[in-house]
Each structure stands twice: as structure tokens, then as C-alpha cells.
Design brief:
It is globular, with a radius of gyration of 18 Å. It starts with a strand and ends in a 13-residue tail after the last helix. It is built from 13 helices and 10 strands. It folds into 2 domains: 191 residues, D-Maltodextrin-Binding Protein, domain 2, CATH 3.40.190.10; 89 residues, D-Maltodextrin-Binding Protein, domain 2, CATH 3.40.190.10. The protein is of the alpha/beta class. The strands form 2 sheets. It has a 5-stranded mixed β-sheet, with helices on both faces. Strands 7-6-8-5-9 form a 5-stranded mixed β-sheet, with helices on both faces. Helices cover 42% and strands 18% of the residues. Keywords: Signal. Belongs to the bacterial solute-binding protein SsuA/TauA family. It is found in: Periplasm. This is ABC-type nitrate/sulfonate/bicarbonate transport system, substrate-binding protein.
């Protein structure tokens, strides 16, 4: 049995279901999830070889492959191997219900120059909010706690954290769907791991995409509901809403593993709005960032 060290931000219900159905064991795999405190921390562990692969935002892969001025000030041959989901409810959340109350508030982000922060900036811009301050507060679960405890006035949440925040009285102000086609999570790995552990990564991709297809088709419902309650600390109602999100054709799981050209363009456009280094989708694609040789991510 091969153990895969997989970096995650929020606990993965997809991985949990794949484990409970026995799909991972049948493929000869055990997944050890390694929670990230922030995207720079996650990529530091990935680039140092402590992680075999990561579930991460695609913008992070762009930053650590194409832009030397990323938070770690180093680039590497990191590749997107498969698209995993369309954001899983990714939305702007606030302790205030009225948009006008967002003026002058503190926006909590993972880091100010990363994917979810770019989503927050764009959604606030659409709402006509420009007078806000920004503070790095780490991963999505950490930002959930920061929002609920009053450490920030607004942030972006998803993957069950959004549902926990709503249950605690936070308000969903705007969704990433307003920004165009979007991929919230991809499976990524170093090129070195792709070359040396192709069978392991190919098996992992196959299990995740097959399990995603089964969930989208309505299989494993009771198992998935229980997994959401167990892994995400959701009640029965919130777990049902989470499962509906997993099955959603826009925000949910992506059984094909394909990151569409339109989704790539959205990610790059959001970064370009806030970056001094302009990227084009063609340049990013030409860098070899997408590797579909293992069975996922190709358009």
C-alpha cells in the first residue's frame, strides 16, 4: 500500500468518500491529508518534496510556476494534473447583511496576492466597495474563525466553511459565479514527482475522478452525507446542502478533470487585475503548467 502525502486546505469529502468506498485501497493507495496553514506554507512543503501532491487553487500553481515574485520568491516545475471542483460555494461573506456596511472594513485573505484574494477584490469591486483594508489570515478554516470572531469584516469562504459561517450568522454577499467560469481546486504536483511516481499519481487521479463521477451521479449519498458531517463538522441540513453543491454542474465536482480554457482565462484575468506582471493564457499554457498525461486536466 502506497501512502500519498496530500496537501489540503479544507478536509476533503471527496477523498473521504474514496477511502470509505474502498476505491483508494483497491488502487493500492492510502491518502494522508496534510492541512495547510496558508498557500505559501503549502507550496513550501510541496517544493521541498514533503508533499506528493496538493489540492489547491489554480492561481497558486500559476504563481509558483510563472512568477518569481511569489511569496516564496522561487519558482518550480509545478503542474496542474486535474481540475477538481468549480469552487464549492466560493463566495464573499460578511458579518453584515447590507453591502453599504462593507465600506471601510477589514478583508481577511490567505495572502494578499493569491487566488481567493483576487476573487474577493473582484467581487468587492463589483459591489462598488473600494475602501477596505487587507490582512493575511491564512487558510479558509482559519478565515472562517476570524470572521466569526470579529477579527475581519469580510472574507471569501467555500468547501463547507461557507455553510458553517452561515449557520453562525454570517451573510453570503456575492458568489464567484458572478466572475465567469471558474475552477476553485486543482490537483497539482511537482514535475519531478510526475516523472518518478507516475503510477501513483495516475492511480490517485483515476480514483478521485471516478469517485467524483459517482457522487455527481447520485451514488454514495448516505456515505457522503456522513462524511460531510464528520470531516466538516456540519449538521444534517448543512451536509445535505454541501452534497447538493458537490453535485452542482457549475460549482461542484468536475468528473472530467478538465480545466476549461474559459476557466483558465478567468483565473489569469483576476490575477492581472492586481498584478504588475501581465500574463496571457497562451503564455501560461505554453509554460507546460497543464499536464494531462496522467488522465486529467486536458481541454
Amino acid at each position: 500500500m502506497r501512502t500519498v502525502n496530500l496537501g489540503t486546505f479544507s478536509p476533503s469529502v471527496l477523498v473521504e468518500v474514496a477511502a470509505r468506498t474502498g476505491a483508494l485501497a483497491t488502487a493500492g493507495l492510502t491518502v494522508r491529508e496534510m492541512p495547510a496553514t496558508s498557500s505559501p506554507a503549502q507550496f513550501s512543503h510541496l517544493l521541498d518534496g514533503e508533499l506528493d501532491a496538493v489540492l489547491t487553487n489554480p492561481d497558486n500553481v500559476v504563481a509558483y510556476r510563472c512568477l518569481p515574485d511569489n511569496p516564496l520568491n522561487r519558482t518550480a516545475d509545478v503542474r496542474i494534473l486535474a481540475a477538481v471542483d468549480g469552487g464549492l460555494g466560493l463566495s464573499l461573506f460578511s458579518r453584515h447583511e447590507a453591502v453599504d456596511e462593507l465600506h471601510g472594513g477589514l478583508l481577511g485573505v490567505d495572502v494578499p496576492t493569491s487566488g481567493f484574494a483576487f476573487v474577493a477584490y473582484a467581487l468587492l469591486e463589483q459591489l462598488g466597495i473600494s475602501d477596505f483594508s487587507v490582512e493575511a489570515m491564512g487558510s479558509t478554516p482559519r478565515r472562517t474563525e476570524a470572521l466569526l470572531s470579529g477579527q475581519c469584516a469580510v472574507t471569501v469562504l467555500n468547501a463547507g466553511n461557507d455553510l458553517r459561517a452561515e449557520a453562525a450568522g454570517a451573510h453570503r454577499i456575492a458568489s464567484v459565479t458572478a466572475l465567469g467560469p471558474y475552477v476553485g481546486t486543482v490537483l497539482a504536483a511537482r514535475g519531478e514527482t510526475v516523472e518518478h511516481d507516475r503510477e501513483m499519481l495516475s492511480s490517485l487521479i483515476g480514483v478521485l475522478l471516478t469517485t467524483a463521477a459517482e457522487l455527481v451521479n447520485g451514488e454514495h449519498r448516505d456515505l457522503a452525507l456522513d462524511a460531510a458531517q464528520y470531516r466538516l463538522d456540519l449538521d444534517a441540513n448543512a451536509s445535505a446542502r454541501y452534497l447538493a453543491t458537490l453535485m452542482d454542474t457549475t460549482e461542484g465536482l468536475i468528473p472530467s478533470g478538465v480545466m476549461s480554457t474559459a476557466a483558465q482565462e478567468t483565473v489569469i484575468d483576476l490575477r492581472n487585475r492586481r498584478s504588475t506582471t501581465a500574463l496571457t493564457p497562451a503564455d501560461v499554457l505554453a509554460s507546460g503548467i497543464i499536464d494531462d498525461s496522467l488522465g486529467g486536466s486536458g481541454d
